[in-house]
Design goal:
α1 runs parallel beside α4 and α2 packs antiparallel against α4. This protein folds into two domains: 88 residues; 32 residues, no CATH class. The radius of gyration is 39 Å and the shape is elongated. 61% of the residues lie in helices and 5% in strands.
Length: 147
């Protein structure tokens, strides 16, 4: 099966020569794609007799798994290198002061409740809290002073 061995050597050298993930993807498509060289070898199995098909099928499957493993390993190496390059290019200065943020505002409904409470307190009501209502306005008459 010298054809499979030659193909293995060509593909392994192409995988090792790939300098980027895009080039590696092109090699993967050339080898394992729909019209790839390994796929074309798989299509030739249909015309063989059963004993030759078994031997050739095992050799082609071994070739396919070896090439796929080599592509995955090379892809991991390339992605690690690309990440290192990107991390060196992108630096964050953590000594910069933080961006100013607004402290927020009182919600309009809460503001109206506070204003109404103040108005009623000026009129003689007082605020009481109980188990059923969080805040409740009660009218408490002013204390009577002895004459």
């Amino acid at each position: 099966m010298t054809n499979a061995e030659n193909l293995r050597n060509e593909l392994m050298s192409a995988i090792a020569a790939a300098g980027s993930t895009d080039a590696l993807e092109a090699v993967r498509l050339q080898a394992l794609g729909k019209k790839g060289s390994i796929t074309q070898l798989m299509k030739t199995l249909g015309g063989m007799d059963p004993d030759a098909r078994r031997e050739a099928g095992q050799a082609i499957n071994t070739l396919k798994s070896d090439v796929a493993g080599a592509i995955d390993a090379r892809k991991a190496d390339l992605e690690g290198g690309e990440l290192d390059i990107r991390l060196m290019a992108e630096k964050i200065d953590v000594t910069l002061p933080e961006r100013p943020q607004d402290d927020g505002r009182v919600h309009p409904i809460s503001q109206v409740i506070d204003e109404m409470t103040a108005i009623f307190c000026e009129m003689g009501f007082s605020v009481a809290e109980g188990p059923e209502y969080k805040k409740d306005l009660l009218y408490l008459p002013p204390p009577k002073h002895p004459p």
